[in-house]
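Comment thread on ticket #2218

A.B. wrote:
> Attaching the input chain for the structure job we discussed in standup.
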Amino acid sequence: MTRDQFELLAPGGDLDSIKAAIAAGADAIYCGLDRFNARNRATNLTLDNLNGVLTLAHQHNCKIFLTLNVLILESEIPAIVRLLSQLNTTQIDGVIVQDLGLAYILKHHFPDLDVHASTQLNTHNEGQIRFLNQLTASRVNLSRELNINEIRHLAEFGKQHNVMMEVFVHGSYCIGFSGICYISSARNGASGNRGRCSQPCREQYEPTKTGNHYPLNLKDNSAFGDLQALADAGVYSLKVEGRIKKSHYVYTVVDNWRKQIDRLCDGEALSTDTRELYTVFNRDFSNAFLQGEYGKAMYIDNPRDHAVKHFAQVYQCQSIDDVQQVKKKLYDDKTAIIETVANKTADFDVTSNIAKASLKGAIDAPTLPALEHSAATAAPKLSVLISDPADAYLCEQENIDVYLQLPMGLADECVSLISLFQAQPTLKPWFPAILIGDDFTAAHEFLSTLKPTMLITNNSGVGMIAKDLGLNWVAGPQMNTTNSYALKCLHQEFAASGAFISNELNMKQMRNIKRAPSMRTFYSIYHPNTLLTSRQCLFQQTEGCKKIKVNKGCLKRCNKRTSIINLKDNPYVIQKQRGSHNSIYSEHNVLNLEVLSDLPLLFTDVMIDLRDIQTETKVEATKLALVQLFSQALQEGNMAERQQIAQAIQPTANAQYLKGL
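C.D. wrote:
> Ran it. Output below, let me know if you need it in another format.
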């Protein structure tokens, strides 16, 4: 192994952390400005000190990647274009993005800026890598949930398409797949897709049946002992999480990883000494996602720092005095690290170039071509989503499209589903956001065999298959479309027929979105609110489960439901549908009839979600009756039917539409 086969990528939440990462030997640092990045709680950089940081980093052979990894609102397009124009005058080494509209603008107007795909794009299959490669991404940060074999497969595929793989090797685990986690957004408008996650998963809940108070809290990720496996898998960038961590944390983790990489490259035995990693903040460590061992051992019923407890066990403390000695030693050790960092960074100057290199002055920003726009001229068409094939009789209703949710474990059911759709030629497929490995391969088989007249997908990899096959496809709500350029990207780059506008937006944030005449705009006006989806089992810390870890049979057969109550009085429903991963839902379904009056010209299509997700919302009507009511309510001025709907479905919520992003 040689050092140029790896990049050690460090977090830089503030200037001190950036300096600490450089001192510890980072090959690259990812950091954000005070806008447009997914760590609003970090101190972040300003345009005034960016050039100084770039000069310092490059003097130490360290690259700087700027995080622009949030969803972009329509009103922010001019500002992001000005920012990109300013960045284009610097020596920035790359930008990290989530938003498809931003990726489109970068490809067509700023081709010299190197583009990296954020973890918020939740990349876990070959099709997604091809999708992002078409948007010029030179690397993708893979989903944290993948195991080493899945990573190896994608790394090999990436090499064939000149796309490098980036993998998180240390820091916080998320309980849900990134980019499709809306739990914080639904609760208080603090969206993870805007860098404002309030981390409800780390909060205390009423004691569950298993006696846990923090049923969604995972241990931290540490792949320190897996470096050889990552190297063998072909991973290029080893990424440390932690842009809201302190500089002594960044220095310690990066320093340990730097030495571990050097050992591998020098042919030395890898270290198993994790004392320093346990000295700085941790929630204990796990490499279970990497090992494919999802289960009880990944959880810890305490979201706070585990360092004292760890060393109290190491030193076999028997008394309060013994624990106090551990606390004192930890304090002294951290103080020593802080002093080391201060000494090593004392002459690191990031201010010397400000006077001559400020980026805040006038800049020539390109004028983007005017967008085509077509207002909807008729009442929106109704689409219906179902999860039970027995509900396919709804296809018999005139002027509606009925979609059947396909399972995330598609491979096991592909043959029977193909037969079902062949027997129901007007039924259309709805693809989930998560399709890993064989399940993504099955999606290709499904579409190649059936060639449906229309499909909706929440997974961009399936969109890529649809484009290849010349099929009409619509980007689903979990593809997070929030601006006109995302619509343009989907249409021009990937031949999409339409896209759902994100349910995280409010009326003002949606009203100026433009669509080309040949592009359909969808919106979900009634649905159980999916807050997150997890590859982990959410029942082990709640209801209890006899299995120690998740196996393939769990995905295929398990069908359970429970609920948890946050101490801030937020109840959530946990439901695992047979064939799919665990998901968390809001207590009450979303019903948004206001949008029909607020934005009568924006949407060509609206959807109602009649899947069998059991929330606390009570529905006093049959599915057929609901379809008929909604069909009538879509006609202009039909307020009576809207009132009947509100009476038939109670209670409901609509907070996200009112708050927006």
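A.B. wrote:
> Thanks. Noting for the ticket: The two ends are 45 Å apart (CA to CA).
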